[in-house]
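FORM 12-B: Structure-to-Sequence Request
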C-alpha cells in the first residue's frame, strides 16, 4: 500500500488528473491505528521533553501565548520553553486545542508515511496533529496556502468546506488579507458538510475555506500539509541562476522608471533571452536542493553508524539512506546545497549501484577499496546498514 493510497480512496491516476489542486475529496475507511493516537499525544506532551515550536495551543480562534503552557526544564536543563504538562491539562480542560507541529519529526510512523508521500507527490510534506476538546472549535473559518490531507484518528469532527475566494493562494497571500471575504463565503452554502470519524480522510487544495468543530468526544486528526512546488518556484530558481551569472549592469545616472518604459521593456526582453539560455539542469539542481532542505531524510542512529563506519567489513550489507536527497553529478556527490563529496572515477560505479536504494554487500561493490568508500559514505550520512531490512 502506497502512502497516497492510505490517504485517498481514488486511484492514483484519477487523483493526479481530476482531484489534485482542483477539488475536495472525502475518503472513508483509511487505516489509522498504526499511525497516531491520543495515548501517543500524551506521551509527547508529558514524557519527551517537548519544546516550542513543536507545540501550539489555540482557543476562541486565537493562538495562545507560549508562556501559558511552557516553562523551565528544571535543574541543569537551562531550558526556558519546555512544555508544562499540567498547564496543557488546564488549558485543554478549558477548551483549548492542542497543535503538535512538525509531528513527522517527532513520531516515527507519521514521519515514515510523510516521507513516502513526499516522494510520490514530488512536493515536500509536513504533518501537524490537532487535538480538540469535545464540542470545541480551535480555529475560525480560514484557508491554507498549501494542499492538505486531513486524517481523522480519534473522535469525530464536523467539517464545513467552502469554495475559495482566492484561486491557488501563495504563502504571501494568507487568509487574513481577505478575512472579510472568507467570513462572508463561510456563511454561504458549503461544498461539503460532513462528520469525519476515525479512518475518514479529507483532501483540500490550497485556498479552500474550512472550519471544524469536535463533537461529543475529544477529536484528534492529522493534517498532512503538502507544500506545493509551483511554476513560480521554477521561475524563481531560474532567476536565481540568472542572478549568479554576472548579469548585473547598473542603470544610467538620473534613470527614472516612470519615464523610461521602453528601457524597462528592453531589460525584460534581455532577461527573457538570457533565461532561455539557462541550462534547465542547473535550475533542476536548485529545486532539488530546496526540496532536500524542506524534507527530512530517513532517521539514522548517529552513534551506531559511527561505530559501524569504524568497524565496517566486506561482509556487511548496506543501502542508501532513504529520502536523503543526495545525488551524483559526475564525480561529485551532492549531499546538500552546502555539502559535497568528491569521488574518484573508480568510486562512482559503486555509488551508482547504491543510489537506487537496494541493499548491497560491501565486498560486492565495484572499485579498489569499497570498504573505505562505504565507511566514508556512512560518516557522511548517506549510507546506512541494511541488516534489519
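FORM 12-B RESPONSE
SEQUENCE OUT:
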Amino acid at each position: 500500500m502506497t502512502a497516497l493510497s492510505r490517504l485517498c480512496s481514488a486511484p492514483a491516476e484519477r487523483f493526479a488528473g481530476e482531484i489534485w489542486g482542483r477539488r475536495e475529496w472525502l475518503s472513508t475507511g483509511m487505516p489509522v491505528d498504526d499511525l497516531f493516537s491520543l495515548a501517543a499525544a500524551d506521551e509527547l506532551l508529558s514524557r519527551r521533553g517537548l519544546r516550542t515550536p513543536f507545540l501550539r495551543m489555540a482557543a476562541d480562534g486565537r493562538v495562545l501565548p507560549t508562556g501559558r503552557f511552557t516553562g523551565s526544564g528544571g535543574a541543569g536543563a537551562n531550558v526556558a520553553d519546555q512544555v508544562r504538562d499540567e498547564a496543557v491539562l488546564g488549558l485543554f480542560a478549558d477548551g483549548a486545542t492542542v497543535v503538535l507541529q512538525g509531528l513527522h519529526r517527532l513520531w516515527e510512523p507519521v514521519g515514515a508515511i510523510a516521507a513516502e508521500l513526499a516522494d510520490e507527490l514530488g512536493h515536500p510534506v509536513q504533518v501537524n496533529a490537532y487535538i480538540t476538546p469535545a464540542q470545541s472549535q480551535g480555529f475560525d473559518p480560514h484557508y491554507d496556502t498549501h494542499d492538505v490531507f486531513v486524517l481523522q484518528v480519534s473522535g469525530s469532527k464536523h467539517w464545513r468546506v467552502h469554495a475559495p475566494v482566492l484561486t491557488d493562494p501563495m504563502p504571501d497571500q494568507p487568509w487574513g488579507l481577505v478575512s472579510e471575504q472568507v467570513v462572508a463565503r463561510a456563511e454561504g452554502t458549503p461544498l461539503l458538510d460532513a462528520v469525519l470519524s476515525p479512518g475518514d480522510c479529507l483532501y483540500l487544495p490550497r485556498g479552500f475555506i474550512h472550519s471544524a468543530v469536535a463533537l461529543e468526544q475529544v477529536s484528534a486528526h492529522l493534517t498532512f500539509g503538502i507544500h506545493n512546488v509551483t511554476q513560480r518556484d521554477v521561475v524563481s530558481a531560474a532567476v536565481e541562476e540568472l542572478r549568479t551569472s554576472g548579469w548585473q549592469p547598473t542603470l544610467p545616472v538620473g534613470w527614472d522608471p516612470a519615464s523610461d518604459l521602453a528601457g524597462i521593456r528592453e531589460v525584460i526582453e534581455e532577461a527573457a533571452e538570457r533565461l532561455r539560455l539557462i541550462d534547465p539542469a542547473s535550475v533542476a539542481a536548485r529545486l532539488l536542493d530546496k526540496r532536500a532542505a524542506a524534507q527530512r531524510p530517513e532517521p539514522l542512529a548517529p552513534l551506531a553508524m559511527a561505530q559501524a563506519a569504524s568497524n565496517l567489513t566486506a561482509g556487511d550489507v548496506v543501502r542508501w539512506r532513504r529520502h536523503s536527497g543526495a545525488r551524483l553529478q559526475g564525480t561529485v556527490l551532492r549531499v546538500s546545497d552546502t555539502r559535497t563529496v568528491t569521488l574518484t572515477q573508480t568510486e562512482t560505479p559503486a555509488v551508482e549501484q547504491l543510489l537506487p536504494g537496494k541493499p548491497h554487500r560491501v565486498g560486492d561493490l565495484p572499485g579498489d577499496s569499497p570498504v573505505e568508500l562505504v565507511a566514508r559514505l556512512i560518516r557522511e550520512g548517506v549510507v546506512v546498514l541494511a541488516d534489519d531490512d
